[in-house]
Write a structure and sequence with these properties.
It comes from Vibrio hepatarius. The protein is built from twelve helices and six strands. The strands form two sheets. Strands 3-4-5-6 form a four-stranded antiparallel sheet. A two-stranded parallel ribbon has the order 1-2. The protein folds into two domains: 7-171, C8orf32 fold (Roll), CATH 3.10.620; 213-262, no CATH class. It has helices at 7-11, 14-25, 31-49, 55-69, 87-93, 98-111, 149-160, 176-193, 197-210, 215-227, 231-244, 249-262; strands at residues 73-74, 95-96, 116-120, 125-129, 137-140, 145-147. 33% of the residues are buried. It is α+β, with helices and mostly antiparallel strands and 269 residues long.
C-alpha cells in the first residue's frame, strides 16, 4: 500500500506522487505511458525555450507552450469528473482542474529551473513564482493567468465569507503530502458521484492507512460498503461514527439508517 507521508514521497515531484496515488487507487492507470509523455513534453519544452535568455521571458514562453501550443486547459464542462484527478487522463485529454494542471506545470517548470512552488489556497491550488529580490507572483493553473493578492482576497471572501481576510499563511508553500491528502479526498468525492464504489473504497482505505481512527472517513467507508451490499460491515462503521460523534447531526440520521439496515438480510462479500 502506498505510504502517503514518507520521506521518499515528499522528495518526488507532485505529478510523480499523484501518479503513484492514481495507481494505488486504480491499477489500470497508465503510469509508464504518463512517465514517457512527461519526458517527451519536457524535451519539447527544452528545445522550445533554448533560445530564450531572459528567465522571465523563458517562463512566459513556457506558459504559452503549456496553455496554447500543448492546449492544456481547465475542464469547465465537467469540472468534477474523476478523470481530472488522474494524471494519465489529464495528459491525454489536455484537461484538468487547478491541482492536476498545477502539478504538471510545477513538474515542467521546476525541471527547467524556474523558482516555482505549490500553494493550497483555500479555494483552489495555486502556483507561486518567486523571482530573486521580487515580491511573489501567483498563477491560476486552471487558465495560466496571473492573479493579484487583491483578487485572491476576493476569492477568499467568496469561499469563507465577508469577514475573511487574506493572511500570509494562505499563501505559504504546501508540502506534497498535504496536497496529495486533498487530492485523495477530491478523487473519492468524484468517484462517489460517479457511483464507482470499488475505486472509492480504495480511496477510503488509503486515507485510513494514515489516519486509522478518523470517524468521518469510517462513516464514508460505511456508506460505500452499504452501496456494495456489505451491510454488516457498513453497520459496524456507522455505529463507530455514532459512538464517536454523538453530537454530529449526521449521527441522528445514521441511527435511523442502522435501525432500518438491522432488519435486512446481511450480505457478506
Amino acid at each position: 500500500m502506498l505510504e502517503l507521508f514518507d520521506e521518499d514521497f515528499d522528495a518526488m515531484e507532485l505529478a510523480e506522487g499523484a501518479l503513484a496515488l492514481n495507481q494505488a487507487i486504480n491499477p489500470e492507470t497508465r503510469v509508464q505511458w504518463a512517465e514517457k509523455e512527461l519526458h517527451r513534453l519536457l524535451q519539447e519544452a527544452e528545445l522550445s525555450l533554448v533560445h530564450e535568455v531572459d528567465e522571465k521571458q523563458r517562463f512566459d514562453a513556457l506558459l504559452r507552450l503549456f496553455y496554447h501550443q500543448w492546449g492544456f486547459s481547465g475542464d469547465r464542462e465537467a469540472y468534477f469528473d474523476s478523470a481530472n484527478g488522474f494524471i494519465d487522463k489529464v495528459l491525454e485529454r489536455r484537461k484538468g482542474i487547478p491541482v492536476s494542471l498545477g502539478a504538471l506545470l510545477l513538474y515542467f517548470g521546476r525541471k527547467l529551473g524556474f523558482p516555482l512552488k505549490g500553494v493550497t489556497f483555500p479555494s483552489q491550488f495555486l502556483i507561486k513564482v518567486e523571482w530573486y529580490g521580487e515580491a511573489p507572483q501567483y498563477i491560476n493553473p486552471f487558465n495560466g493567468e496571473y492573479v493579484t493578492e487583491h483578487t485572491l482576497g476576493a476569492w477568499l471572501i467568496g469561499h469563507k465569507g465577508p469577514l475573511a481576510k487574506l493572511k500570509p499563511k494562505h499563501l505559504e508553500e504546501t508540502d506534497n503530502p498535504t496536497v496529495i491528502g486533498r487530492w485523495l479526498a477530491l478523487l473519492k468525492s468524484a468517484l462517489l458521484r460517479e457511483e464507482r464504489y470499488t475505486l472509492a473504497l480504495k480511496c477510503t482505505d488509503l486515507a485510513l492507512s494514515f489516519v486509522p481512527d478518523d470517524p468521518y472517513e469510517i462513516r464514508d467507508r460505511g456508506y460505500i460498503y452499504q452501496q456494495l451490499d456489505c451491510h454488516q460491515v457498513a453497520l459496524t462503521d456507522y455505529q463507530y461514527f455514532i459512538e464517536n460523534c454523538p453530537d454530529d447531526p449526521a449521527s441522528e440520521l445514521l441511527k435511523n439508517q442502522v435501525n432500518a439496515m438491522s432488519g435486512t438480510q446481511v450480505t457478506l462479500h
